[in-house]
């Protein structure tokens, strides 16, 4: 299997902020979305079982369906299969979608998927609040071992003015230096890294949840030669939710050299118990696919599921 993320096609990852028993059926529906030429339009889906939070909830409320399992794992109980991991196995088996997930404790969470996700069927990214190179190193080693993909989100702190960040001729920003530096901890991943632009926290962000800094994303892509994804959900947020599709289409038209700036999208779609107000509906996702197909070639996944499950 060719595990490289293509640079000439648009890769779409879509799904709920966090998975649970009430929305898992929507993930399977996402797998059925087709492009106008009849090919599977969605390459991967979000199956997130634990959410990164700036404040802990001892009751587990808002922390994700796998939160109890993560607590048990930290206490040494490693033989329990978390609910979202079982969901992920079913999703790959029935749809062939790549499973994408945020992880906080890589050597616990990612190893849950060993023997569950086939080669090329997992993409794991760091939370924006986690900007440690050694964590990226852990993630890259596990991803390399099992043939998965690595996502690296930019941090929340910009370290300069928004005007300077979006200046095409501006000087290197602290955010840019950190984001680029994180990629050096993943030398084994080669063309299986997705830089994920999710906006930044700045006073002048206006109604955006996180202000867009496309020029920083452009420079980091140029300097690292990694694929670049756009996360419109965490950029626009609930206040600009109705502008998500328009802004996403505009971003996917942005050029870089002879090609496009963005190679992929990581977008929240459907219903979720977390961040519900920044999700687009599945009908809107279908409309987005049709709009994007008019000017971009989509990275269509194989309809067939993996031989890994033939004996399952």
Summarize, please.
The protein has 312 residues and is α/β, with parallel strands linked by helices. 31% of the residues lie in helices and 13% in strands.
Main sheet?
Answer: 8 strands, parallel
What's the arrangement of strands in the largest beta sheet? Answer: 1-10-7-6-5-4-3-2
**Residue runs with pLDDT of under 50 for 5 or more positions:** 305-312
Mean pLDDT: 93
Overall shape: globular
User: What is the number of helices?
Assistant: 11
Number of strands: 10
Helix and strand run: EHEHHEHEHEHHEHEHHEEEH
| Fold-level CATH name | TIM Barrel
CATH class: Alpha Beta
CATH architecture verdict: Alpha-Beta Barrel
- Quaternary state reads single chain
Structural class by sheet pairing and helices = alpha/beta
Question: How many structural domains?
Answer: 1
The separation of the N and C termini measures: 20 Å
Radius of gyration, taken over Cα atoms and rounded to an integer in Å = 18 Å
């Amino acid at each position: 299997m060719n595990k490289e993320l293509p640079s000439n096609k648009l890769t779409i990852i879509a799904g709920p902020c966090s998975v649970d028993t009430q929305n898992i059926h929507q993930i399977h529906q996402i797998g059925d979305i087709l492009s106008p030429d009849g090919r599977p339009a969605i390459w991967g889906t979000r199956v997130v079982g634990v959410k990164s939070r700036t404040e802990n909830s001892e009751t587990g409320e808002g922390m994700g369906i796998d939160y109890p399992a993560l607590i048990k794992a930290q206490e040494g109980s490693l033989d329990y299969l978390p609910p979202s991991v079982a969901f992920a196995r079913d999703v790959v088996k029935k749809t062939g979608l790549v499973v994408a997930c945020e992880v906080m404790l890589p050597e616990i969470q990612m190893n849950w998927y060993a023997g569950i996700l086939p080669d090329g069927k997992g993409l794991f990214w760091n939370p924006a609040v986690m900007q440690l190179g050694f964590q990226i190193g852990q993630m890259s080693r596990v991803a390399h071992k099992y043939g998965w993909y690595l996502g690296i989100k930019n941090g929340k702190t910009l370290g300069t003015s928004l005007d300077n960040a979006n200046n095409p001729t501006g000087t290197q920003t602290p955010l840019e230096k950190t984001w680029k530096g994180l990629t050096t901890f993943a030398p084994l991943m080669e063309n299986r890294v997705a830089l994920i632009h999710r906006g930044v926290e700045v006073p002048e962000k206006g109604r955006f949840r996180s202000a867009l800094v496309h020029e920083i994303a452009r420079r980091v892509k140029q300097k690292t030669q990694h694929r670049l994804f756009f996360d419109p959900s965490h950029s626009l947020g609930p206040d600009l939710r109705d502008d998500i599709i328009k802004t996403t289409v505009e971003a996917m038209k942005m050029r870089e050299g002879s090609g496009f700036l963005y190679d992929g999208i990581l977008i929240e779609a459907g219903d979720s118990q977390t961040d519900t107000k920044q999700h687009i509906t599945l009908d809107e996702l279908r409309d987005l696919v049709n709009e994007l197909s008019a000017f971009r070639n989509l990275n269509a996944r194989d309809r067939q599921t993996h031989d890994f499950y033939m004996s399952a």
